[in-house]
Specification:
This protein has 17 helices and no strands. It has helices at about 1-20, 35-40, 55-65, 70-80, 95-110, 110-130, 135-150, 155-185, 185-195, 200-210, 210-215, 215-220, 225-245, 245-260, 270-285, 290-295, 305-330. The two termini are about 40 Å apart.
């Protein structure tokens, strides 16, 4: 955790320097839309082959430990898939199959296709970076060992564990078939959909656009101008949604202020203030607004009593000014 915070701090500093050099204002105007030919791979051109193999020693070993999918699991998966229709089914397809269905309409400019394709590829990028078969294998061994030592070992829990890791391994292998070059286009698909006015694509861009720079200082140094550009656009889109009183944007903003993102410097006071606004929004939807308003924010040692009083006062004012109407519309 300490190492991650140091990396995020270094990333934020580097991006701040780049932004100052570029003369950034607080809420910049998004760049003008560009044509697909100028910034996306030619849909008719063959992309480079996969740079990593979906099958290697760790994957084979893990697959052998997990065993095949049972008939009961297949039936359960079929029932689950039957609940989803239309666009939602695209989230259940293996990533390489979803890519095959979505790439052509996305390349034609279909904003919904660009958004879903960007989301699927963004998830692949995280899997390929963080959930490699070596990581899954070590985790699974540790969890099986812990389950064996439990006071009451459960066959059902062991089966559920195997099912979860089987699904995650399959997703990794499907992403690996696409290759890094295809997967890395996720930012461009989300950005293009966002420039076309797709609100969900804009928020997805906020959540994913700086991922590749957070844990690799060398990659950041080599692409500092691009990282700064993405940061400016992500902030502009996030702040525009905050101004509309959007709940998802509020959650993303709190996460960033808490230190889980490179979008903004860590700010505990601002995070708690906006978290209280989010509490009021959710309480309004659940019919518990009066209690949440009267009780105020949940207080802990992160802030002083005087600061908590200020969080309560300013949080109520911010909710009334910018988020009350959105909370009422959601009811």
């Amino acid at each position: 955790m300490r190492r991650r915070n140091a990396m995020l701090a270094a990333l934020a500093l580097a991006l701040a320097i780049a932004a100052l050099l570029a003369g950034r204002v607080r809420v910049p105007r998004p760049p003008a839309p560009q044509t697909a030919a100028a910034w996306l791979p030619d849909p008719s051109a063959a992309l480079a082959p996969a740079s990593r193999s979906p099958e290697h020693a760790a994957a084979r070993e893990l697959s052998a430990l997990l065993g095949p999918e049972s008939a009961e699991e297949r039936a359960m998966r079929a029932r689950r898939e039957a609940l989803f229709q239309g666009e939602d089914r695209l989230y259940l397809l293996p990533p390489d199959e979803a890519y095959a269905r979505l790439h052509e309409p996305a390349a034609r400019g279909d904003a919904d296709a660009m958004y879903v394709l960007g989301r699927r590829l963004a998830h692949c990028a995280r899997l390929l970076r963080e959930r490699m078969p070596e990581v899954l294998l070590e985790e699974y061994r540790d969890m099986v060992a812990a389950e064996a030592k439990a006071p009451e070992p459960s066959v059902a829990r062991r089966q559920n564990l195997a099912r979860q890791y089987r699904e995650e391994l399959a997703a990794y292998q499907s992403c690996a078939k696409l290759g890094d070059q295809r997967v890395s286009t996720f930012v461009r698909w989300l950005e293009r959909a966002g420039l076309a006015g797709h609100r969900h694509a804009r928020l997805a861009y906020v959540g994913y656009a700086l991922d590749e720079y957070e844990k690799d200082g060398g990659h950041l140094a080599a692409h500092i101008e691009e990282a700064a550009r993405r940061r400016r656009l992500a902030r502009a889109w996030l702040e525009a949604e905050l101004a509309r009183g959007d709940e998802e944007a509020l959650s993303l903003y709190i996460e960033a202020l808490d230190g889980g993102s490179a979008l903004y410097p860590r700010d505990r006071f601002a995070a708690e203030l906006h978290r209280y606004v989010l509490t009021l929004m959710r309480a309004r939807r659940m019919g518990q607004f009066e209690t949440a308003w009267a009780r105020g924010p949940y207080r802990h040692a992160a802030l002083t009593p005087a600061q908590w009083d200020e969080v309560a006062r300013r949080g109520r004012a911010l909710y009334a000014r910018a988020f009350r109407d959105a909370a009422e519309d959601a009811q």
